[in-house]
Design goal:
- With 109 residues, the protein is mostly helical.
- The protein contains 4 helices and no strands.
- Helix content is 62%, strand content 0%.
- The longest helix has 22 residues.
């Protein structure tokens, strides 16, 4: 669950980084669309099994989109954001390793 929350925040952050791109450019539009798609897919992945693989594909696309849009801020956003989205998307939704509320298993004893 925490991985879905982090992926949601990453998607919103990627969409927000479009302010560093030239206003109205294809790169800014790309970052907003991909960021919002990542955020939406992470919310859907909480309820729908297997939807996190859409985030995996979007993370890979974001990573390699620097070859399509060779603009320096976008390349760094793609490398860092794409890698983090890819990694977090592979964590199962049921994993509560770092979840701060409650326990994932019953206490022993």
């Amino acid at each position: 669950m925490i991985a879905r929350v982090l992926t949601l925040l990453l998607g919103l952050a990627i969409a927000g980084t479009s302010v560093w791109e030239p206003r109205g450019s294809e790169v800014a539009t790309h970052d907003v669309i991909v960021g919002l798609l990542i955020a939406a897919a992470s919310v859907v992945a909480v309820a729908v099994r297997g939807a996190n693989y859409l985030c995996t594909a979007l993370g890979l696309w974001l990573f390699f989109s620097g070859m399509v849009y060779p603009v320096v801020p976008h390349i760094y956003i793609g490398i860092v954001g794409g890698t983090l989205v890819f990694i977090f998307s592979l964590v199962p939704t049921s994993d509560r390793t770092f979840w701060p509320f409650g326990r994932s298993t019953a206490p022993a004893g």
